[in-house]
C-alpha cells in the first residue's frame, strides 16, 4: 500500500527535505494559490510528476481528510544491504586513521527519533544505520523531516537479526558498545577509539536482553538531574559525539 503526504505545506517540506516522491496528485478544482505554485515549481525542479485527478480520488485516498486538494505519493526508501555499510566503514577507516562508526538501533518505534538519530549520525561521519526489519520504525516522510534530509545521505540497512550483524562487525574489527543505564561505566571513561558499533535501545525498554548480552561492553551517560533518562535521540547524539571527540 502506498504512503501519502497530505496538504500543501507538508508536501513543500517533503520536497525541500528530499523525501523520495513518486508523484504528486493535484485535484482538478484545486485553487492555484502561492503554495500550490511553490509545489509545482519544486516538483519541476526535482523532476517529480504532477498528475491532475478528480478531487474524489484524493478524498478516497486521504486518511485524515486534510489533503487541501494535493497529495504526494512517496516511494519506498532505498535500504541497502549490510555489506554496503561494512564496505563503507572499511574504506572510511582506511582514510581516517582507523576510526569508523556504525549505529545500530534496537527496535526503535518512532520514525521521528530515527530521523533525529540519522541527522546526528550523518553529522559525525557515521558510515550507516542498522535497523530491524520487523517491530521497528521504518524510514518514512517524518524521518526525512526530523533528519532535515540527512537520511538521504546515510546508508540504512534493514536486517532480520541484529545479533548476527553485531557478530559480523566484530569479525571486521569493530568493538560493540551498548548504551544502557544498567552499567556503572560512564561513556567518557570508556575507550571508543577506532571502529565502534554503537547500539541504542528501544524508547521504553532500552536494549533487549539478547542484544545487551552480545555487546562487548556497556556505557552510560551520567545523570545529574531528576529526570530518569534522556530521549533516545538526545542520548544517541551525546554518545556519537563522544565517539567523535575521542577520535578527532
UniProtKB/TrEMBL annotation:
It is an enzyme of class 2 (transferase). One of its GO terms (cellular component) is cytosol. GO terms for molecular function: RNA binding; RNA methyltransferase activity. GO terms for biological process: methylation; RNA processing. It comes from the Bacteria. CDD domains: SpoU-like_RlmB. Keywords: Methyltransferase, Transferase. Gene3D superfamilies: 3.30.1330.30, 3.40.1280.10. Residues 4-80 form the RNA 2-O ribose methyltransferase substrate binding domain. Its EC number is 2.1.1.-. Pfam families: SpoU_methylase, SpoU_sub_bind. NCBIfam families: rRNA_methyl_3. Belongs to the class IV-like SAM-binding methyltransferase superfamily. RNA methyltransferase TrmH family. This is rRNA methylase, putative, group 3. The lineage of its organism: Bacteria, Bacillati, Actinomycetota, Coriobacteriia, Eggerthellales.
Amino acid at each position: 500500500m502506498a504512503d501519502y503526504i497530505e496538504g500543501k505545506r507538508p508536501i513543500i517540506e517533503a520536497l525541500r527535505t528530499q523525501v523520495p516522491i513518486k508523484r504528486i496528485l493535484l485535484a482538478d478544482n484545486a485553487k492555484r494559490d502561492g503554495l500550490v505554485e511553490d509545489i509545482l515549481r519544486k516538483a519541476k525542479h526535482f523532476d517529480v510528476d504532477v498528475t491532475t485527478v478528480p478531487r474524489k480520488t484524493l478524498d478516497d485516498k486521504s486518511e485524515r481528510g486534510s489533503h487541501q486538494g494535493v497529495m504526494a505519493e512517496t516511494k519506498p526508501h532505498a535500504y541497502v544491504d549490510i555489506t554496503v555499510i561494512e564496505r563503507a566503514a572499511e574504506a572510511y577507516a582506511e582514510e581516517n586513521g582507523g576510526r569508523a562508526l556504525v549505529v545500530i538501533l534496537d527496535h526503535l518505534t518512532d520514525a521521528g527519533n530515527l530521523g533525529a538519530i540519522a541527522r546526528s549520525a550523518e553529522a559525525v561521519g557515521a558510515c550507516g544505520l542498522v535497523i530491524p526489519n520487523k517491530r521497528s520504525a521504518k524510514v518514512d516522510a517524518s524521518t526525512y523531516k526530523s533528519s532535515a534530509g540527512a537520511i538521504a545521505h546515510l546508508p540504512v540497512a534493514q536486517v532480520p537479526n541484529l545479533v548476527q550483524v553485531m557478530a559480523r562487525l566484530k569479525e571486521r574489527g569493530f568493538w560493540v558498545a551498548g548504551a544502557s543505564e544498567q552499567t556503572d561505566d560512564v561513556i567518557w571513561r570508556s575507550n571508543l577509539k577506532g571502529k565502534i558499533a554503537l547500539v541504542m535501545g528501544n524508547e521504553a525498554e532500552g536494549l533487549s536482553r539478547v542484544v545487551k548480552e552480545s555487546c562487548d561492553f556497556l556505557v552510560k551517560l551520567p545523570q545529574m538531574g531528576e529526570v530518569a533518562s534522556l530521549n533516545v535521540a538526545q542520548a544517541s547524539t551525546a554518545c556519537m559525539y563522544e565517539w567523535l571527540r575521542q577520535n578527532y
